[in-house]
Automatic annotation (TrEMBL):
It comes from Kutzneria albida DSM 43870. Coiled coil: none annotated. Residues 17-168 form the Putative restriction endonuclease domain. Gene3D superfamilies: tt1808, chain A. This is Putative restriction endonuclease domain-containing protein. InterPro entries: Nuclease_put_TT1808, Restrct_endonuc-II-like, Uma2.
């Protein structure tokens, strides 16, 4: 099954329409009023989200939080995304969602979401002003990191594979080895 983008016949979707979506294990997101529906992720995807989220949380400063999907980043009435992982400031969070750009977004690719994660969602995160965007391909595994430049455009700052080491400085210092994110699944 692939991620679907659909338009309702009469008007674009809003975040209020998301409350009526079924609780069926799929992820429902909005980008500029367009509904994106993704199936439940697979084993490698979930293992990487769990391992990376746990590690990021372990070294996270006290004024920041690491959260995983489903958690809404809702910068407007027509856009709500649920990154696989995010890092946000304590003062930016509400009990319900994150109404501003997180400091870091991580998307783990799935066959059904890869094109959206690498194109559509990357463009949305850039437009929102998310300073750091990481994409993890669980197949190899490979971590590709992007950071906003002075013009607000993403520039690739790293691509690490297998046992290579990624030494991130933003949003806080962290050392990541992609193959370790698979745990026992190697």
């Amino acid at each position: 099954m692939t991620a679907m983008a659909t338009h309702p016949p009469a008007r674009p979707y809003t975040v209020h329409d998301l409350a009526a979506m079924p609780d069926d294990g799929r992820r429902y997101e909005l980008i500029d009023g367009v509904l994106l529906v993704s199936p439940a992720p697979g084993t490698r995807h979930q293992k990487i989200v769990m391992k990376l989220g746990s590690y990021l949380d372990t070294v996270c400063p006290d004024d920041l939080h690491v959260l995983s999907a489903p958690f809404a980043v809702q910068p407007s009435a027509s856009t709500e995304v649920q990154p696989d992982l995010l890092v946000a400031r304590d003062e930016d969070l509400t009990d319900k969602n994150l109404p501003v750009a997180p400091l870091l977004v991580v998307e783990v690719l799935s066959p059904s979401t890869a094109l959206n994660d690498l194109n559509t969602k990357k463009a949305v995160y850039q437009r929102m002003g998310v300073p750091s965007y990481w994409v993890v391909d669980p197949a190899d595994p490979v971590l590709t990191a992007y950071e906003l430049d002075a013009d607000g455009q993403y520039q690739q700052v790293a691509e690490v594979k297998g046992t290579d080491v990624f030494e991130a400085a933003r949003p806080y210092p962290v050392r990541i080895v992609p193959v370790e994110l698979l745990g026992k699944l190697r």
